[in-house]
Amino acid sequence: MLTKRFFKTKNEAEITFEFSHPEAKKVELVAEFNDWQPISMRFNKKEKRFKLKHRLPTDRKYHFRYLIDGNLWDNDNCADGYAANGFGSENSIVDTQKLA
User: Fold this and answer.
1) Nearest one of 44, 39, 46 to 62, comparing CA atoms
2) Alpha carbon of residue 95 to chain centroid
3) What CDD domains does its record include (predicted)?
4) Terminus of the chain with fewer CB atoms < 10 Å: N or C?
5) What are the pLDDT digits (tens) for 34-52?
6) Confidence label for 9 from pLDDT (cuts 50, 70 and 90)
7) If you write DSSP's letter for every residue of 4-68 in order, what string do you get?
């Protein structure tokens, strides 16, 4: 799940990435905005989901995926879109365009 917060005085958006997987011990966000280097997500015990907040420039689209326990890839089922990647699957897309 993606939650977006836009700032009036900055050309950036705070994106909250949230992901739930019943058996996952570790989930990492892997995205083009950080050169596809995994970023560990924190587990929220109360909500039983992994979360990560990250600020991104507005008016762009970014590809990303979730890496579960270092070996299983998954997409965000609430992403803004999906695009084929070079590995025979799809990437999730987050769009940071401000809507009027």
Assistant:
1) 39
2) 11
3) E_set_Isoamylase_like_N (cd07184)
4) C
5) 999 999 999 998 889 999 9
6) confident
7) EEE-SSSSEEEEEEEE--TT-S-EEEEEGGGTT--EEPEEETTTTEEEEEEEEESS-EEEEEEEE
Q: Among 94, 96, 97, which residue's Cα sits nearest to residue 66?
A: 94
pLDDT of residue 94: 97
Lowest mean pLDDT across 22-26, 27-31, 49-53: 22-26
Phi, psi (deg, nearest 5) at residue 11:
-90, 55
| Residue 8 pLDDT greater than 90, yes or no | no
Correct CATH for 2-95 of 3.40.50.1100, 3.30.70.100, 3.40.640.10, 2.60.40.10: 2.60.40.10
